[in-house]
Specification:
It contains eight helices and five strands, in the order E-H-E-H-H-E-H-H-E-H-H-E-H. The chain is of the alpha/beta class. The chain has a single domain, classed as 3-Layer(aba) Sandwich (Rossmann fold). GO terms for molecular function: dTMP kinase activity.
Length: 211
């Protein structure tokens, strides 16, 4: 099973990831964690680093091609081999990349979701978009010792929250796969998210053909 956690910075992705990893391991499931990018193509890496810093690529098509190339390398060398041994939880994946492209290149996020959905890569059986209120996310970010990154200022965070909602809708339209949208603001929210992820993990373990 491939599980993708998506959402703005400070939404609670790492917290959910760590809880799911710990709970799944305690139940005896083989599960690993991967990041958003492969970093296996020098050209794609240069483009991605620029995007993460808020710099647009030379052209919109070049940016889309670079991240699609990286996603396909990520699938071939990281996702597929790891999935052959068990389940995988990705802390950010396709929707986060689509939102980054849309933010930097100022185009509708649905365009990039459509482009990335065509990549030769496994699709998550469960995508979770954390819809935590941006103001709470800002409070959490203020408590971190690391400097703010591009896209983590209050105005951009609110804009990205809307993009993730649009990306989730576009993903379901393009792939037919449902997206769970849930905030991670309280202990109850966290418990519900972890329970939903574990339920899907157990279901996939009982029916290997769904992994």
């Amino acid at each position: 099973m491939l599980l993708a956690l998506e959402g703005i910075a400070g939404a609670g992705k790492s917290t959910v990831r760590d809880r799911v990893l710990a709970a799944a391991t305690a139940e005896g499931h083989l599960i690993a964690h991967v990041g958003q990018f492969s970093w296996l193509s020098l050209e794609a890496t240069r483009t991605i680093i620029g995007l993460r810093a808020g710099r647009a690529a030379t052209t919109n098509s070049r940016a889309a091609a670079a991240v699609r190339r990286d996603l396909e390398l990520h699938a071939r060398h990281n996702l597929i081999p790891t999935l052959s041994c068990g389940s995988v939880i990705a802390d950010r994946l396709t929707l986060s990349t689509a939102c980054l492209l849309a933010l930097v290149h100022r185009r509708p996020v649905a365009h990039y979701v459509r482009e990335l959905a065509r990549a030769h890569a496994p699709r998550p059986q469960l995508t979770v978009v954390l819809t935590t209120d941006p103001s709470l996310c800002q409070t959490r970010l203020a408590q971190r010792p690391t400097p703010r990154r591009f896209g983590e200022d209050p105005t951009t965070t609110a804009q990205l929250a809307q993009m993730f909602d649009q990306a989730a809708t576009a993903w379901t339209r393009e792939t037919g796969l449902a997206v769970l949208r849930q905030p991670c603001a309280t202990r109850t929210d966290l418990d519900l998210l972890v329970s939903a992820c574990l339920d899907r993990l157990r279901a996939c373990a009982e029916c290997p053909s769904r992994t």
